[in-house]
Structures are given as C-alpha cells and as structure tokens.
Specification:
five-stranded mixed sheet, alpha+beta, 362 residues, 3 domains, two-stranded antiparallel sheet, 12 helices
C-alpha cells in the first residue's frame, strides 16, 4: 500500500495511534462536511441546496471567522507540509507581519483533540513557521459549530523542534516494511481490520475463556493453511455475530438502567425510521404540498422479495407457470432498463448436527 495515500495531514492523528491505519471510508457525514466546507469557502450562507440546519451551522462558522478576522482572510490555502511532503489545506488563513492565523472547520459531532495535541493543526503551524521566517507564532482555531465549541491554541517558533520530531516519528513508523499494529479506537474506521493480526489476536484471546469452542492456531485469514484452522474459523465466524449483538444489546440495557458505566462508551439514542404503510395515500398528501408524482417515485423502492411473492400469487390465480412467468417478466424489465439484475454469490451453512454450542468456562 502506498504510504503517500495514508500519510496525509488529516490522517496524522490516526497514524500516531496505529502506524498501519488505512481507510478509504466514505460516508454521508464526510460528503456533507465537504459540501459545508465549500459553502464556507464561498461565504454562501443562503445556498438553496442547504437545509435550514446546515445554513445555521455555516452561519455560525462564518460569524466566528468574521468576528475574529474583520479585515478579511484567505480560504482553502494549499501548502506542502515539510517532512511528510504532502499538501495540507487550510480552511481559513490570515498572515500578519509577525503572527498568522489558521482555522479549520469541523462540522461533525465527534470530539476533536485539543489544539496542543492536534497533529493536523500543528503540522499547519509548522509549515507556516518553516516557510515564513519572519513569523513568531501561529494562532490555531478549530471551529465546531454543531458542538457549539471553539478550540484555540498557539504554536511558537520554539515548538517547531517537538513538532518536527513528532512528524518524523510518524513518518518513520508508517514507512517501515511491516508497520506495527496497535488496536484501539481508530479500528472503527480502518479498512485493515480483515487482516489486522493485532485485532485478530486480541479477539481470539478473549475466546479462550469459552469451552467447547474451536480456536484456530493461525488467526490471519490470508495465512491459514490447514483444513482444521479453516473449519474452526468458520465455526467462529458463524457464532460471533450473534454473540456481538447480544453483548451490545445487554450492555446498552445495563447502561441505560444506570447499573453499568463503561469508561470508553456513552449511551446514544437511536431508533427505527418511520415507515410508509399506504403509498397511494402518502402520494396524495405530497401532491397536496406541490410535490409531483415523478419526484415521489424517484425515492420509492421495491422489495424484490415482496414483488416475487405478489407475482407468484398472480401466476397461481391465472394458472400459469410461476417460475417462467416471474423469470420472463424480470428479464423484460431488465431489457427495458427498469431493473438492474443482481449477482449470485456463495456462502457456507452449518451442516445439520454440526453446530457448536459454546459454554463459558467455570
């Protein structure tokens, strides 16, 4: 894997925790963050593509920048960060004769490290002090409107040696032929979990407290060579999802009831989404508000399982071959461009009588 892909300013905090960290994770939150950054860059508070809540957050972010930098600022400034030799993008930048200001927008709800411990912001400060010899210090601001929070800090020229040491250490650890694995909170977003030996070993060690459970000698899926290991691993793969679900459910119940407090977790409210049970009636209600049937249909989805059941019932009523009727109809829909065919896949099922029931050791 190309270290240049991993060694970015925004990734520094994760790489400091685990040199093997790598993620191509993309989410709706990340896409929204990019969109709101663009709105701030354009200083566009009233873009029609934003919701009212998004307009509020952009407005709060811009209000803060304007109040702190009334004489103006530059946006989206790209500079190459020394040592890691990758470009960093500063959301807000202002430079005076002896001091500079850098701000970074964070529109998520995940807490950020304080500025003195924030590798991304400190790397920006190092870059400016390295490039502009006349600067004495750089003011750093993390602007987090959804959290109603501003984190501030100052990096002075005397701090450069420590930052340089940190960047070199992260770079050296990442560029090792076989970087170390260090499981922790960054594992949640890491794409290397499937072949992370540290995570596997940690999980397998926990399972050793359970009787009647096969434990493979080799835990890395890509390195298993014996039938015994693969068979044992398959049993574990079948059992662990249910076990994980039960653990998460029971822990949430205990925390919610005040009987348990987990130091690394907090209770979060969730729920199932509302469900439309009468599509035709719902369509009429939307039409009353000026939403067209065409727009409504773009957000509708069809359950293929329920569709097949409906077609099978129709075929039986009309005394036609069910399988042929469904196959011909779906083939026609695919040919017309109304249906995207699925792809077959294979999986393993436990043979009757071979399922293992684990027992906790006394």
């Amino acid at each position: 894997m190309d270290d240049k892909v991993r060694l970015t300013s925004s990734n520094l905090k994760n790489l400091a925790k685990c040199p093997s960290y790598y993620s191509e994770f993309s989410s709706d939150a990340a896409s929204e963050g990019q969109f709101l950054h663009k709105m701030c860059e354009d200083r566009d508070r009233d873009n029609e593509e934003m919701t009212q809540e998004q307009k509020l957050q952009v407005g709060k972010a811009l209000d803060y920048v304007e109040s702190f930098l009334p004489d103006g600022w530059q946006t989206e400034i790209k500079m190459k960060i020394p040592i890691i030799n990758r470009n960093g993008i500063m959301d807000v930048f202002s430079k005076g004769a002896k001091h500079a200001v850098v701000m970074d927008y964070k529109f998520g709800i995940t807490p950020e490290e304080d500025v003195p411990n924030n590798y991304q912001m400190r790397s920006y400060a190092y870059t400016l002090l390295y490039k502009y010899k006349e600067l004495k210090s750089v003011d750093l601001h993390l602007v987090m409107p959804r959290q109603e929070m501003i984190l501030q800090g100052v990096v002075k020229r005397s701090d450069m040696k420590q930052i340089e040491y940190d960047l070199k250490l992260i770079k050296r650890r990442c560029e090792q032929k076989e970087p170390e694995y260090n499981p922790g909170d960054v594992c949640k977003w890491c794409d290397r979990k499937p072949d992370c030996e540290a995570c596997m070993s940690k999980a397998i060690n926990c399972l050793k407290y359970i009787d009647n459970l096969p434990i493979p000698v080799e835990t890395n899926p890509t390195k298993m060579v014996t039938v015994e290991d693969r068979n044992a691993a398959q049993h574990l793969a079948m059992l662990l999802p249910d076990w994980c679900t039960m653990i998460k459910k029971k822990n949430a119940e205990l925390v919610l009831d005040g009987e348990l407090e987990l130091p690394d977790f907090k209770i979060t409210k969730g729920g199932t989404a509302p469900k439309v049970i009468d599509i035709l009636l719902f369509k009429e209600i939307l039409e009353q508000e000026g939403i067209s049937t065409k727009d409504f249909l773009t957000i509708c989805s069809i359950s293929m399982e329920k569709l097949r059941a409906m077609l099978a019932n129709y075929a039986a009523q009309n005394e036609v071959n069910t399988d042929i009727f469904i196959d011909e109809l779906l083939t026609h829909a695919e040919y017309e461009g109304a249906l995207l065919a699925g792809h077959p896949y294979h999986y393993l099922r436990t043979i009757r009588g071979k399922k293992i029931k684990p027992q906790i050791k006394e």
